[in-house]
From TrEMBL:
It comes from the Eukaryota. Keywords: Metal-binding, Nucleus, Ubl conjugation pathway, Zinc, Zinc-finger. This is (wild Malaysian banana) hypothetical protein. It is found in: Nucleus. InterPro entries: RCHY1_zinc-ribbon (IPR039512). Signal peptide: none annotated. Its main location: nucleus. It comes from Musa acuminata subsp. malaccensis (Wild banana).
Length: 62
């Protein structure tokens, strides 16, 4: 459900290349994912029970 919402949602141009470091509260793993202001999905367990520990202002996909 949330996955579908995320896929359909367009981020503003200036946010598209940004990344965030996310810490998962469920599995305790850290990862870097694309910026989103609402939902941050854990890449390991798929949980949305995460928090942002750092936001990069520069692109991480260069
Ligand atoms: Zn997780």
């Amino acid at each position: 459900m949330i996955d579908a919402l995320l896929a359909a949602e367009e981020l503003p141009e200036e946010y598209r290349d940004r990344c965030q470091d996310i810490l998962c509260n469920d599995c305790g793993k850290k990862g870097t994912y694309r910026f989103h202001w609402l939902y941050h999905k854990c890449g390991f367990c798929g949980s949305y029970n995460t928090r942002v520990i750092k936001t990069d202002t520069t692109s991480c996909f260069t």
